[in-house]
């Protein structure tokens, strides 16, 4: 299905750039902490949690791969829902995603600023200023074109993977491979208590769906970008997990809090803290670069569909939705200002954004079921949707946020429908 009429984004993404974007989005700051926390809780069986989650994420990746190849759109997951389920659910998906991006991306920027502050000794309001500066700088890079922003993402992502791979190799080869600390395969059930926690490290591929319209050959390249990045990330995660549980003492507080820093300390000594701060900053900036790309495309697609003012769907000479980018940057900086004023906390920003993403997974499962042929595929989509519902039940009062978004969406859809009806009536009269 082709994107709707209106400005079309330039098709500049290749498999390599798609893989780089996926790596930068999925490999988050969690990899700095989760290997140690999982190991501390379940010991040498921890690696099986990483393996199990690598299998559990496959159903979601299959859904996004199929929908992304069939419905390449700048609207990403919202575009899938709109194409299959119609305007109402599509508009709801767009606003839920906006609600997630508008809180989640500033929260990520604040995390990046915190790591930068640890590196240079910065504190107080200066951290918030740096968070805003990171967003503005990345927005300028994006305005220069997808060639530039894609190249930046490739450098960040491959540097990140290279550093983490080096850390894993150093940790593993400090001891003979025969001495790896791995529990017998029969004891894999011991890892179940940390499977949910570790799964957080495998989220983020859904962001790649917003770049579907920009792939040169989306039907081929989109699924391949997901597949190649998946293989690379699984190998990297398992290697890091093995290095942590082979080289570090299970119940040492440093293993729980800063496992990667502890691994580096055995090699680099006092410089390990700075090295981890640099690594974390690369992770955060790569996350932000991909997330800003996704958010601006969502705004562009919503404006092109008429959900938002069409002025937001303007492209520059490089085919970049620069107005949508500027609007996103302004909102993100505004949310950072709200955090400075004490109106919202960073943990709450993450929590509200996370539950919105979970709702999007559920809507994508509905879209998958509606377009799937055959009982097994429909049953598969239903099962994924039910899992989303079960997890959603744990959010409690925070569900007020997406409920409020749903009410606003309903009002806008009704008003838009009435406006369209009056316009058609006037045209018939004339």
Automatic annotation (TrEMBL):
Q: Which UniProt keywords apply?
A: Cell membrane, Membrane, Transmembrane, Transmembrane helix
Positions of transmembrane segments: 15-34, 46-64, 96-122, 129-149, 155-174, 186-205, 225-244, 278-300, 320-342, 348-369, 376-393, 399-415
Which Gene3D superfamilies does UniProt cross-reference here?
Amino acid/polyamine transporter I
Example of a GO MF term: transmembrane transporter activity
Give Gene Ontology CC terms.
Answer: plasma membrane
Please give the InterPro entries that the UniProt record associates with this protein.
AA/rel_permease1, APC_superfamily
Q: Which domain of life is it from?
A: Bacteria
Q: Where in the cell is it found?
A: Cell membrane
Quote the Pfam families the UniProt record gives.
Answer: AA_permease_2
Where does the secretion signal sit in this chain? none
State the membrane topology.
Multi-pass membrane protein
- What is this protein called in UniProt? Amino acid permease-associated region
Give the species this sequence originates from. Alicyclobacillus acidocaldarius subsp. acidocaldarius (strain ATCC 27009 / DSM 446 / BCRC 14685 / JCM 5260 / KCTC 1825 / NBRC 15652 / NCIMB 11725 / NRRL B-14509 / 104-IA)
């Amino acid at each position: 299905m082709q994107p709707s009429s209106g400005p079309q984004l330039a098709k500049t993404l290749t498999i390599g750039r798609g893989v780089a974007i996926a790596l930068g989005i999925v490999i988050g700051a969690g990899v700095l902490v989760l290997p140690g926390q999982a190991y501390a809780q379940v010991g040498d069986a921890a690696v099986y949690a990483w393996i199990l989650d690598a299998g559990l994420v496959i159903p979601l990746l299959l859904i996004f791969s199929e929908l992304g190849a069939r419905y390449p759109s700048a609207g990403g997951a919202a575009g899938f829902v709109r194409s299959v389920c119609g305007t109402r659910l599509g508009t709801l998906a767009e606003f839920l995603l906006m609600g997630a991006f508008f809180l989640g991306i500033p929260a990520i920027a604040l995390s990046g600023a915190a790591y930068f502050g640890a590196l240079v000794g910065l504190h107080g309001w200066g951290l918030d200023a740096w968070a805003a500066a990171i967003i503005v700088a990345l927005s300028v890079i994006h305005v220069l074109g997808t060639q530039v922003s894609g190249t930046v993402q490739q450098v960040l992502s491959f540097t990140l993977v290279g550093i983490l791979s080096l850390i894993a190799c150093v940790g593993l080869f400090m001891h003979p491979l025969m001495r790896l600390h791995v529990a017998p395969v029969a004891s894999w059930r011991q890892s179940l208590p940390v499977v949910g926690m570790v799964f957080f490290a495998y989220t983020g591929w859904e962001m790649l769906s917003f770049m579907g319209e920009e792939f040169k050959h989306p039907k081929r390249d989109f699924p391949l970008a997901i597949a190649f990045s998946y293989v690379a990330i699984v190998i990297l995660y398992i290697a890091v997990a093995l290095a942590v549980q082979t080289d570090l003492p299970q119940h040492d507080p440093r293993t729980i809090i800063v496992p990667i820093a502890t691994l580096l300390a055995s090699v680099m000594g006092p410089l390990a803290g700075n090295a981890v701060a640099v690594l974390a900053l690369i992770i955060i900036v790569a996350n932000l670069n991909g997330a800003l790309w996704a958010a601006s495309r969502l705004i562009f697609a919503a404006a092109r569909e008429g959900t938002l003012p069409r002025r937001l769907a303007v492209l520059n000479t490089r085919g970049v939705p620069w107005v949508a980018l500027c609007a996103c940057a302004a909102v993100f900086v505004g949310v950072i200002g709200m955090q400075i004023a004490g109106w919202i906390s960073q943990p709450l920003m993450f929590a509200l954004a996370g539950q919105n993403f979970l709702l999007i997974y559920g809507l994508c499962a509905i879209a998958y079921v509606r377009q799937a042929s055959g009982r097994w595929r429909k049953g598969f989509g239903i099962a994924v949707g039910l899992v989303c519902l079960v997890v959603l039940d744990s959010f409690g009062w925070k569900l007020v946020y997406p409920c409020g978004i749903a009410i606003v969406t309903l009002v806008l859809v009704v008003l838009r429908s009435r406006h369209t009806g009056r316009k058609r009536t006037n045209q018939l009269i004339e």
